[in-house]
């Protein structure tokens, strides 16, 4: 047992001594901080004051111009009523000719008194003159949209006035018809929606489940690759021969897997702490509140399940990665050799992420029992639907049994693989050699 | 009770027999030479002694007991293909290996410092292995195999790739271990090292032990077939003497192959008739000659 801890501490200590490990961890922590602050940062840019655009018009007294001037006055009145008007209308004196008017308005743009100006055409079927907004800007959408809204409003008011509707009727007409959705559970299950979930809670759960699944996938992939790489390089540098004569292969392999697990756990805890720290900062709390994301609504049992599935998933994949790492003699060959495991974990990951908006399919149900997929897929079901507890326990049971089986198989392959050099052994050679060793 | 006893071990890889019934015994404080051409089965034999692979037949006894994980701690191993962690500091990895073999950290540290001092490289304690030259890496590798004060040390090609100064340094260390009673199994291609260090040897050829026993006795069994002759001036007609098979002239004189020792007398008399003799010796066969004879002939 003491040897086990010796291997664990050596593995952990060496990892912490490598610069690349420290740098990647730091970069990830920074990325997480940026991500957590993103809503706040975005709002910072958005609130950067409402920009007001000054728009000119001609106070004409005859023809289309007169109709237009009337409309412009109404627009002006509309905008002055707004709390934060983003358009200010500026009146220009009539020069008498159309060309002269245009010239005067253009001079206004040059003098930076206005950003653009309005010209008016014939009265349209909707009762308002045709309006053209002229400015130097390319597709000035925000101003145009604002003007459009204002014009719409003016026309509606006009029609209401003509129809003689009362103020009350108007309010009634504009009150939106709403329907609320709520996800409920008909029977008690492992999911978190026992009391029913509002759409906001559902959205939070979807986001949380995606984050958990992505984290699970990344941690398993990264630490798994690290295990395989370390074992291959130990084998490649022949230090393995000395190690095997010093300590039993089983101790060595599990020590390595456990050491890497501690490293992965350290990273997860660090990232989690960074995230919580960032989220609990006052400015972020408000920002998420504005987006209707409430972290106190997260069901703690979801986190507990996430931890269990992380542990189980990690150890299952780690055994395979260790076994593969032991077969290959050179790190150059490793990427190719671990491909099957990578594809396996990718499959589980994709089944989970692509089913996030539709977590009730038969595929999801089946995959939630398959050992290599269940860490990802059952997490999805627990987070978003309400699987009965026995189903979750069955899935976990299958997972634990397969950890045992693959742990045993991995150790056996490891014992055999670490001493096989030269070309990668075929399955037949491997099976034959495996029979020769008691672990 | 011999510290290491190998009885009729046998190993098969597929259709190929790698080791075919080798037996040997190594006493306390003895360096046992295991010789053989490349692929003769030396490394396989050593790996079986280490428990890296299990023999298909026969048994290996350590102080009379069969192999078990507990035996590992009294073994030390210098593998033929060197291997350590290139990017880990020397002290870290050696203390790690010593700890795995049941040493306390303090004892291991003391032992490591002792050896580094002995090899005159105490400054490597905090260096990474990849920063050292190949010869110095080999010193570290050697320390790794003896740091935990093992009772049995297995040295596979211990001195290959070292300059003469370092060979002497390591040879002195090996001799010191022998004085302390360490049992060593030693393989090399350098016959002069075997002659210097080993009392008993086994020569392996194609998985079999072709020659085995006490080095002195083995040499005695082989006829003396070589005469070294040093003279003032040239000697003519050596080839014509009875029993002379081959004459080779070199800087200091002649190296003459003879069929029997009687021819030696003829040569001496023949040479003295013509000139002054400064050196005359009927040479004992070198291990090198015996080896080439055994392994080479069987190759035919």
UniProtKB/TrEMBL annotation, chain A:
Keywords: Cell membrane, Membrane, Transmembrane, Transmembrane helix. One of its GO terms (molecular function) is ABC-type transporter activity. InterPro entries: ABC-2_transporter_component (IPR051449), ABC2_TM (IPR013525). Residues 19-411 form the ABC-2 type transporter transmembrane domain. One of its GO terms (cellular component) is plasma membrane. The keyword Transmembrane applies. Its main location: membrane. It is a multi-pass membrane protein. Pfam families: ABC2_membrane_3. It is found in: Cell membrane. It comes from the Bacteria. The chain crosses the membrane at residues 20-42, 208-228, 257-281, 302-328, 334-354, 366-384, 390-411. This is ABC-2 type transport system permease protein.
TrEMBL record, chain B:
Keywords: ATP-binding, Nucleotide-binding, Transport. Pfam families: ABC_tran (PF00005), DrrA1-3_C (PF13732). It comes from the Bacteria. The keyword Nucleotide-binding applies. SUPFAM superfamilies: P-loop containing nucleoside triphosphate hydrolases (SSF52540). GO terms for molecular function: ATP binding; ATP hydrolysis activity. InterPro entries: AAA+_ATPase (IPR003593), ABC_transporter-like_ATP-bd (IPR003439), ABC_transporter-like_CS (IPR017871), ABC_transporter_ATP-binding (IPR050763), DrrA1/2-like_C (IPR025302), P-loop_NTPase (IPR027417). The keyword Cell wall biogenesis/degradation does not apply. Residues 4-231 form the ABC transporter domain. PANTHER family: ABC TRANSPORTER ATP-BINDING PROTEIN, ABC TRANSPORTER ATP-BINDING PROTEIN NATA. Belongs to the ABC transporter superfamily. This is ABC-2 type transport system ATP-binding protein. It comes from Paenibacillus algorifonticola.
């Amino acid at each position: 047992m003491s040897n086990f801890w010796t291997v664990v501490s050596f593995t952990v200590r060496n990892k912490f001594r490598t610069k690349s490990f420290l740098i990647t961890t730091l970069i990830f922590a920074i990325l997480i901080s940026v991500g957590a602050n993103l809503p706040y940062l975005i709002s910072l840019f958005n609130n950067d004051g409402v920009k007001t655009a000054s728009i000119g018009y001609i106070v004409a007294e005859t023809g289309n111009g007169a109709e237009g001037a009337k409309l412009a006055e109404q627009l002006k009145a509309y905008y002055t009523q707004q709390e934060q008007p983003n358009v200010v209308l500026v009146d220009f004196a009539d020069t008498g000719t159309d060309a002269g008017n245009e010239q005067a308005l253009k001079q206004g743009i040059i003098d930076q008194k206005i950003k653009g100006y309005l010209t008016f055409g014939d009265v349209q079927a909707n009762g308002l003159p045709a309006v053209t907004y002229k400015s130097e800007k390319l597709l000035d959408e925000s101003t145009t949209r604002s003007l459009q809204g204002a014009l719409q409003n003016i026309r509606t008011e006009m029609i209401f006035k003509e129809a003689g509707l009362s103020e009350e009727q108007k309010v009634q007409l504009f009150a939106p018809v709403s329907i609320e959705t709520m996800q409920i559970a008909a029977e008690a299950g492992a999911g978190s929606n026992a009391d029913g979930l509002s759409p906001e809670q559902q959205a939070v759960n979807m986001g949380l489940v995606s984050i958990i699944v992505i984290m699970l996938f990344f941690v398993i992939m990264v630490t798994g690759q690290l295990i395989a790489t370390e074992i291959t390089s130990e084998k490649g540098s022949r230090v393995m021969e000395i190690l095997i004569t010093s300590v039993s292969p089983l101790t060595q392999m599990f020590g390595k897997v456990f050491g890497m697990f501690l490293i992965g756990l350290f990273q997860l805890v660090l990232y989690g702490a960074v995230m919580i720290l960032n989220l609990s900062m006052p400015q972020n709390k408000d920002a998420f509140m504005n987006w209707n994301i409430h972290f106190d609504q997260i069901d703690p049992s979801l986190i507990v399940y996430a931890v269990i599935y992380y542990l189980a998933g990690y150890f299952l994949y780690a055994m395979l990665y260790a076994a593969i790492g032991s077969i290959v003699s050179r790190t150059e060959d490793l990427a190719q050799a671990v491909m099957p495991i990578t594809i396996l974990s990718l499959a589980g990951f994709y089944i989970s992420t692509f089913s996030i908006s539709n977590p009730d399919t038969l595929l999801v149900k089946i995959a939630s029992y398959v050992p290599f997929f269940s860490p990802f897929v059952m997490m999805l079901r627990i987070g978003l639907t309400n699987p009965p507890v026995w189903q979750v326990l069955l899935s976990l049971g299958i997972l634990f049994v397969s950890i045992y089986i693959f742990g045993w198989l991995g150790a056996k392959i490891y014992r055999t693989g670490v001493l096989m050099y030269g070309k990668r052994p075929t399955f037949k050679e491997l099976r034959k050699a495996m029979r020769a060793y008691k672990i | 009770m011999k510290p290491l006893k190998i009885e009729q071990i046998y190993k098969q890889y597929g259709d190929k027999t790698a080791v075919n019934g080798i037996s040997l015994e190594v006493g306390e404080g003895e360096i046992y030479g295991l010789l053989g051409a490349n692929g003769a089965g030396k490394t396989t034999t050593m790996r079986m002694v280490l428990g890296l692979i299990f023999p298909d037949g026969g048994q290996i006894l350590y102080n009379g007991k069969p192999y078990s994980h507990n035996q590992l701690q009294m073994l030390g191993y210098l593998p033929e293909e060197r291997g350590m962690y290139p990017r880990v500091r020397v002290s870290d990895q050696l203390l790690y290996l010593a700890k795995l073999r049941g040493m306390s950290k303090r004892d291991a540290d003391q032992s490591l410092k002792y050896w580094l001092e002995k090899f005159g490289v105490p400054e490597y304690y905090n260096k990474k292995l990849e920063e050292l030259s190949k010869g110095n890496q080999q010193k570290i590798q050697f320390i790794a195999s003896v740091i935990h004060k093992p009772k049995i040390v297995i040295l596979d090609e211990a001195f290959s790739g070292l300059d003469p100064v370092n060979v002497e340094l390591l040879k002195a260390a090996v001799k010191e271990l022998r004085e302390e009673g360490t049992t060593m199994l030693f393989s090399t291609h350098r016959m002069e090292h075997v002659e210097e260090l080993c009392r008993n040897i086994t020569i392996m050829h194609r998985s079999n032990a072709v020659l085995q026993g006490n080095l002195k006795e083995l040499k005695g069994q082989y006829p003396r077939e070589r005469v070294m002759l040093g003279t003032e001036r040239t000697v003519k007609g050596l080839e014509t003497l009875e029993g002379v098979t081959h004459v080779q002239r070199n800087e200091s004189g002649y190296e003459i192959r003879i069929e029997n020792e009687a021819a030696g007398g003829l040569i001496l008399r023949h040479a003295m008739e013509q000139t002054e003799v400064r050196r005359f010796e009927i040479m004992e066969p070198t291990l090198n000659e015996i080896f080439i004879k055994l392994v080479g002939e069987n190759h035919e």
